[in-house]
Amino acid sequence: MADTPTASRGEFLFTAEQQELRAAVRRFCAQHFDEATVRTLMESEPRFDRDVWRRLGTELGVLGMAVPESDGGAGGSLVDQAVAVEEFGAALACGPLFGTVYLAIPALVACPVGPVRDALLTALTAGERTAAFDSRPLAETGGRISGTAARVVDADAADVLLVAADGAGGSGVYAVDLNGPGVHRHPLVTMDLTRPQADVVLDAAPAELLAGPQEADRVVGHALQVGAALLAVEQVGAAQHLMDLSVDYATSRLQFGRQIGSFQAVKHKLADMLVDLEHARSAAYHAVWALADGSDDPELAAGIAQAVCSAAFSRIAADTIQVHGGIGFTWEHQAQLYFKRAATDAALLGSAEQHRSRVAELVLDHAVAHPGAVSVATGRPQ
Amino acid sequence: MSGAVTADADRVAEIARRVVAEHDPKQVPVTEFLGACYDAGLSWVNFPVGLGGLGLSRGLQAVADAVLQGAGGPVPLGLNPMGYGMAAPTIREHAQSEDTKKSLLRPLATTEDIWCQLFSEPGAGSDLAGLATSAVRDGGEWVVNGQKVWTSLAHKARWGLLLARTNPDAPKHKGLTYFVLDMHDPGVECRPLRQMTGQAEFNEVYITDARIPDTHRLGGVDDGWRVAMTTLMNERSALGASGSRRGQGAIADAVQLWAARPDLHTPVLRDRLAQLWLRAEAQRLTSERSRASATAGDPGPEGSIGKMVGAELNQKIYEFCMDLLGPEGILYHSYAMYGQNAGTGDWRGPVQQRYLRSRANTIEGGTSEVMRNILGERVLGLPGDLRADAGMPWKDVPRG
Asked: Under an 8 A CB cutoff, do A379 and B331 touch?
């Protein structure tokens, strides 16, 4: 199907173009997000290289893959975006992916067309500007926003904050220039240095309306669902990297004169990691396909993905340290970077428990018993 | 999907529609319908033409099955599980002549001949290659003696897949030979084996001087282990490949019970059920992904995990059901002994019986410990464990 480059082959099947995309992003990450570079960037200000970010937007075109071509995007599908994000996750690629790619760009795609939205979408997709996103509503008066947006990922260096706000005219989604007046940023020390946060205090900061009361809930909901699916894919990419690392180590590390992977206690732990990884991959990509082609309830699919992938990545990261033994606990070894990313990802956009609870509301709380279901023996002779 | 694969899929669907049109499964006897499927090459589309196949990729079986079963056709694997899942691929690959293949495969496909598997022994479970049943050559025949166990359908089977020791002086993997045993031989005796549920789904099979013609040997003498691998890999993929719609399978029992008994709800049980539901759903999606990649001719590691996950999930689901029911759960319907096809209604019985039955899930068809070894060694490429009997002649290996 070479004539339709981004066409889906059906759920879980990647096109040849998507496989090429994966290889291209992997090559780029190997050059620009090798471990030494990631360690340098995570202790730099800002926490990413703006030139490399711009190249991701222009040269690779992987920041807005699901953005329509008319809005300056690649005109692809969310599956394309997910393929790129999985590779970013594997490398712990540094940059405002969470704020800009997972949340702000999907929010803007869902916003009504207009000059502010269009210009911002084009700039974000090209990597010229970056954005952070916060869905907890602040207060709006006369086009100015006040309040504190706490612990906003990527707000330390972002150019724009997309934020929900309630005002006299109802709720809305606004863009605030973070370099403009009335904005005070307070960068925070994060456990995961590759994923920075800041408190943003807005004091009558000028804001531009992106979506009004008719649209705001839908825009925020769409952004959070796409964000959940892309975050899940990031978790899968990182978890696969750890799986590979752990298998390599269990094969090369010798104790008692044997490869430690020959011990069943270690082997079986790795087998359980593999099961969690494959489950996570299935759940994450199912959510991506559900959002891309409407084949499933996106809220349920995104909830399943976050519940499954947060738990899987956290467990795989913990077991990676265990399989590596002492070296896995050192600052020098990369396991700690991924362990901290796992803890962070599991807390962003809702914990596994919160998503599980929502899934339970959707599938258990309204379940109806059907006649002919499994019987319960009563102990009375039949 | 490549153009060639798409064209093959269209062809398979077309053939299946023709079979259904000429032999309506809702009208004709099952044996006739399945015979027509065999003759059209739809029993195993990856088999050669003339042996129930079309010489196409295995993934396209799903295309045929969708049409055949969509029109009301039976699930052949359910009617002759060992026949379809294990015997057929082994016969196809290892029988000595085309005549033998043809004479065995068609009645297998129609389910006129039911098959069973004679592998496990009281002294050889996970360490299957250590089995002791002997086969000694006597002219053009083999004379077999020994005892097999956990043989489902032995009492109904026409043929049994037999693994027997033909060279006790060789290391255990190198002295086995694979045969087709006539279950009607006077030297074959089946006894039902009662299990903890009270039923007898399985049998013990006692073999005393049973005779097998050499033409019913599959593969070379002392090469039976390699042949058995064909069977076992197919058993595992057959057990792991069954998919379903969201919420179907064992998890449906738990959700139904939950919905029927709001008086027993607690937040802790709700969260436990949600965890089970998510695990079941993640595995269902993984089976779907496995099916998609198999259809595209690119099977990945995800296909190997279904058996293990499903087995452990079944146990946890029925443990949940029991904990939900509390004192009501510890009653039973009856310990009167009956087979799996006795009586009416669902043979799996009430939830308490399913709870007891689920203990076997992590043992039958490969224990979960063996499955984790397989995932570790075959999928992840980890090194094998040390073996105390490596290279030792079978007759010198300690047993007990």
From this structure: yes
How far the first Cα of chain B sits from its last, in Å, is: 53
- Which of B205, B232, B259 finishes a domain? B232
Mutate to test the interface with B, among A255, A263, A279, A359 (most CBs of B within 10 A): A279
- For residues B280 and B326, state if they share a domain: yes
State pLDDT tens for residues B250-297: 999 999 999 999 999 999 999 999 999 999 999 999 999 988 887 666
Contacts with B309 from chain A: Cβ below 8 Å:
275, 279
* Phi and psi torsions of B171, nearest 5°: -55, 155
Residue numbers of the domain that contains B284: 241-366
**Residue A227 and residue A280: Cα distance in Å, rounded?**
16
Give the separation between CA A88 and CA A97, rounded to whole angstroms. 9
Please state the domain extents for chain A: 16-214, 217-363
A9/B289 CB distance under 8 A:
no
> Which CATH architecture fits A16-214?
Orthogonal Bundle (1.10)
| B208 and B279 co-located in one domain | no
Query: B362 and B245 in one domain?
Result: yes
Interface of A with B in 206-265 (CB under 8 A): 247, 250-251, 258-259, 261-264
Pair B57, B105 in one domain? yes
Is the pLDDT score of A5 beyond 70?
A: no
Task: Quote the tokens at residue B375.
Answer: 């995932």
Kindly state whether residues B254 and B285 are assigned to the same domain. Answer: yes
- Note the pLDDT tens digit of each residue in B15-44: 999 999 999 999 999 999 999 999 999 999
- Predicted TM-score of the model (pTM): 0.91
Number of domains chain B contains: 3
Per-residue pLDDT, B345: 58
| Residue B125 included in any domain | yes
Strand partners, A93: none
- Contact yes or no for A261 and B376 at CB 8 A: yes
Give me the pLDDT at residue A233, please: 98
Q: How far is A188 from chain B (nearest CA, A)?
A: 34
A152, with CB counted inside 10 A (0-12, 13-18, 19+), is: buried
User: 3-state SS of chain B: helix, strand, coil percent to 5?
Assistant: 50, 15, 35
* CATH code of the domain covering residue B300: 1.20.140.10
Q: CB-based contact (8 Å) between B301 and chain A? A: yes
CATH 1.20.140.10 fits A217-363, yes or no: yes
Distance, in Å, from the CA atom of A103 to the CA atom of A101, rounded to the nearest integer, reads 6
**A95: helix, coil or strand?**
coil
Res B338 pLDDT > 80: no
The answer, for B277 touching chain A at a CB cutoff of 8 Å, is yes
* ipTM of predicted complex: 0.94
B248 and B358 fall within a common domain: yes
Is the predicted pLDDT of residue A2 greater than 50, yes or no? no
